[in-house]
Design a protein that fits this description.
The structure holds two protein chains of two kinds.
Chain A: E1 6-17, E2 22-34, E3 39-43, H1 50-58, E4 65-70, E5 73-74, H2 78-81, E6 84-87, H3 99-109, H4 114-127, H5 143-154, E7 161-165, H6 173-188, E8 192-196, H7 200-206, E9 209-214, E10 217-223, H8 224-228, E11 229-239, H9 243-249, E12 255-259, E13 262-268, H10 272-281, E14 285-293, H11 296-307
Helix pairs in contact in A: 3-4, 4-5
Chain B: H1 2-17, H2 19-34, H3 43-71, H4 73-80, H5 82-87, H6 93-127, H7 134-155, H8 161-188, H9 192-204, H10 214-218, H11 225-251
Helix pairs in contact in B: 1-6, 2-3, 2-6, 3-6, 3-7, 3-8, 6-7, 6-11, 7-8, 7-11, 8-9
The chains are: A alpha/beta, B mainly alpha.
Chain lengths: 309, 255
């Protein structure tokens, strides 16, 4: 059986800060698993423990309790890091290096040398659209350019697992689309991607599974499709009618709203046919009937509200 | 080992583009160049004086450079978070510390070597005497600076930059006065338990006067091979202790 690239079990981490050395819990018994080949999203509000979780995965921070594995090795093992790519949240690279030299430095840590390293660097700089600016030092790069460089350096070793902290941060819509395409391309190649993001639409578009964390705990987890589907609720979109039609349909639906001139109803399963018959009687045109899905934003906000202290 | 060299190279590149590095370097050269303007004595004593004063100046600049190069290495990388990206690669924390230290050593060696050449050239141009013996003194300064750099790097695993800089300078001063003032005040002025602690402290810190070859080199005799070997071993011992201590703190430190 293939081992999960990432597995965390009851991880705990707290920090002491201030003059009184007051203890602040950052991660509180977090468990999660990422399946091979998945794009996994770690979501949560600011201060939920996402960055600490990533630092624990990378061996930058040591957990107070619990255990975990990365690509089948204990957390922090160099063997795992050799098969891992990491994109930090902010572009934190040596500003005195050019993009070419930066890739050369990071590539050497993976044992890449000579023409192989040069070819790989060129290929990646080309992929992220930095080939023309590769001679500039990184301190002259814009935030978006640094983010692109970050993606290039994260892929130097052709990693099995890529951990990305806010991969679209600082990118314009075109750049965001390009990053999305890169992530989907990596998934096609069978790579596993772990990303932390505030851009819920991005996560909704590309992630297979998510874990929502709040106050250091996992508060919702699972396959995204399962989490967003709402059992027994149907969405009906109708056109035409008027205020009177809206008034007539209201008692039959769980909720009713107008959107771009259409009437959008959420109806519980047994009420679908009565609504359709009533709509026909009111002279309304049926646009579509579909199972009702939450948006990720709705799910996220609902979950955070429910788990607020 | 490749990771260590790659990290060392990045330290040298960083040092090369830091303005403070050049300012101190150029200032050192300027002072050395100005030394002939100081009052001189009869012709035979001028070469001695030049060697002596130049080595003393290089010693001072070597230590200042060692502190400047070492003090911000770890805190700076943690603050800028560049360290995250390094440690997410297959680079161990031991390699990281070793690479940083090796880079500092290489930068120090390069600068001190150039300063040594400057003295050599200066004495040759002014007095038409070729005195390669000066490099014995420069090597001793290098060992002393390397020791201070190791102390500073070890301290940087937990201390802030200002605290570290202050502590390193204090350490340098203490290690120079230990055979004189410190020895007298600690040993003669105390008794009982305090005396035991005083002796412990006295022997725990290195005696940097061991690296002061200004007079030996100044008077042209130089130091014997045994002396050079002894001070190299002495520096190596303390450097190892400081680096191991620094690594032990850094090994499990949350960043």
């Amino acid at each position: 059986m293939e081992q999960n690239p990432i597995a965390l079990d009851s991880i705990k981490k707290s920090y002491r800060s201030g003059l009184r050395r007051k203890r602040r819990v950052a991660v509180d018994g977090l468990s999660l698993e990422v399946n091979p080949g998945d794009i996994f999203g770690l979501l949560g509000p600011n201060g939920a423990g996402k960055t600490t979780t990533i630092k624990i995965l990378l061996g930058i921070v040591f957990p107070d309790g619990g255990e975990g594995s990365l690509l089948g090795h204990p957390l922090g093992a160099r063997e795992a890091h050799a098969r891992l790519g990491f994109l930090p949240e902010q572009p934190y690279f040596y500003g005195f290096l050019t993009a070419e030299k930066g890739l050369e430095l990071y590539g050497k840590f993976f044992g890449l040398r000579g023409p192989l390293l040069k070819d790989r660097s060129r290929e990646l700089l080309d992929m992220v659209g930095l080939e023309r600016d590769s001679h500039l030092t990184l301190d002259k790069y814009s935030k978006g350019m640094l983010q692109r460089f970050g993606i290039a350096q994260a892929l130097l070793n052709d990693p099995e697992l890529v951990i990305m902290d806010e991969p679209s941060s600082g990118l314009d819509p075109v750049g965001q689309k390009e990053v999305r395409d890169i992530l989907l391309h990596l998934k096609e190649q069978g790579k596993t991607i772990f990303l932390s993001s505030h851009q819920l639409s991005e996560v909704e578009n590309i992630c297979d599974s998510v874990t929502i964390v709040n106050l250091g705990r996992s508060v919702k987890e699972g396959r995204l499709a399962d989490l967003l589907s709402v059992e027994g609720l149907t969405r009906i979109v109708l056109r035409g009618g008027g205020p009177a039609a809206l008034e007539a349909l209201e008692p039959l639906a769980s909720s009713i709203a107008t959107l771009d001139g259409d009437t959008v109803l959420q109806v519980e399963e047994p009420g679908v046919f009565p609504v359709l018959e009533a709509a026909r009687g009111l002279g309304m045109e049926l646009v579509r009937v579909e199972p009702y899905h939450l948006s990720l934003e709705e799910l996220f906000l609902q979950t955070i509200r429910e788990t607020a202290p | 080992m490749r990771n260590v060299f790659s990290l060392a190279l990045s330290v040298i590149k960083d040092a090369a583009r830091r303005k403070v590095f050049y300012v101190v370097f150029l200032f050192g050269l300027a002072v050395v160049a100005l030394s002939p303007l100081l009052p001189t004595f009869e012709l035979g004593a001028r070469a001695q004086f030049l060697r002596d004063i130049s080595l003393s100046l290089i010693s001072l600049f070597g230590v200042v450079l060692a502190v400047i190069l070492s003090v911000g290495q770890l805190p700076g990388e943690v603050e800028k978070r560049t360290i995250y990206n390094i440690l997410s690669k297959p680079v161990s924390r031991l390699q990281y510390v070793a690479g940083k230290y090796l880079g500092i050593l290489a930068a120090l060696a390069a600068i001190l070597f150039i300063m040594g050449l400057e003295i050599l050239l200066l004495i040759y141009v002014r007095l038409h005497v070729f005195t390669p013996i000066v490099f014995e003194g420069v090597f001793a300064v290098f060992l002393e600076s390397a020791l201070i750099a190791a102390f500073c790097l070890a301290l940087s695993t937990f201390a802030t930059v200002p605290v570290n800089a202050f502590a390193s300078v204090l350490f340098y001063v203490l290690c120079h006065v230990k055979t004189g003032f410190l020895h007298q005040s600690l040993v003669e002025g105390t008794s009982g338990v305090v005396k035991v602690f005083a002796w412990g402290f006295y022997y725990l810190i290195p005696n940097l006067e061991n690296f002061n070859l200004s007079l030996k080199v100044g008077y042209g005799g130089g130091a014997s091979a045994a002396v050079m070997l002894r001070i190299t071993g002495y520096a190596g011992l303390f450097i190892s202790v400081f680096l191991v201590a620094g690594y032990l703190v850094f090994r499990r430190k949350d960043l």
